[in-house]
Amino acid sequence: MRVLVVEDDPDLNRQLVTALTDGGYAVDSAKDGEEGYFLGETEPYDVVILDIGLPKMDGISILEQWRRAERNMPVIILTARDRWSDKVQGMDAGADDYVAKPFHMEELLARVRAQVRRSTGHAKNEIECGPLRLDTKSARVTYDGQPVKLTSHEYRLLAYMMHHNGRVVSRTELVEHLYEQDFDRDSNTIEVFIGRLRKKIPGDLIKTVRGLGYRLSEEPDAP
Ligand code: CA
What we know:
The protein has helices at residues 10-22, 33-42, 59-68, 84-92, 105-119, 152-163, 171-178, 187-200; strands at residues 2-6, 26-30, 47-51, 75-80, 97-101, 126-129, 132-135, 140-143, 146-148, 168-169, 206-209, 213-216. The protein folds into two domains: 2-120, Response regulator (Rossmann fold, 3-Layer(aba) Sandwich), CATH 3.40.50.2300; 126-216, Winged helix-like DNA-binding domain superfamily/Winged helix DNA-binding domain (Arc Repressor Mutant, subunit A, Orthogonal Bundle). The protein is elongated, with a radius of gyration of 18 Å. A hairpin with a 4-residue loop joins strand 7 and strand 8 (140-143). The strands form three sheets. It has a five-stranded parallel β-sheet with strand order 2-1-3-4-5, with helices on both faces. It has a four-stranded antiparallel β-sheet with strand order 6-7-8-9, covered by helices on one side. The longest helix has 15 residues, at 105-119. The protein is built from eight helices and twelve strands. By secondary structure, it is α/β, with parallel strands linked by helices. The structure holds calcium ion (CA). Calcium ion binds at residues 8-9, 51, 53-54.
């Protein structure tokens, strides 16, 4: 899952990037409105965290323009505590949720999880595929109740596939949702990570769909 943080306060920006990266997300960040607008316009994000008061372009205008251009990713706005009108304006401009500053990082992370969950059609924090289970809150994976040890990139890949289980995901889609913008992207590395995951997860759950990509499913493929 890939997240964009648009926040001009350098300390808060850094804290958000650190907390989200630790939470298993690929994170891009922007410190002014123009850069944030551009990233959200051109890159696919699973969630965007958007401050309202920003230099160069304000958060409400950014959001309105994204929505006008059919950019439909979930957006959580950051508002000042005493500015109730920002919340109303933001929600009306197309925000999916808001957090008032100052906030606890745990609350922000819970709201991010909720948006990812809802936008991928899940109601619970735990996602299952047969014996495989992902707890998005603790970022842990178990198979038959036994913990599966994953590197951060393996976790990102598996978490994305579990949120989209049953559906074919292409290598391009995986590359776009697993790596930061400045990462040296090579879709061959996806194949390597899939190979590693298959070694760690028994039961042939990760299927290759020839020419299309991969599908996580407990059902055997049609002959
Ligand atoms: Ca600000």
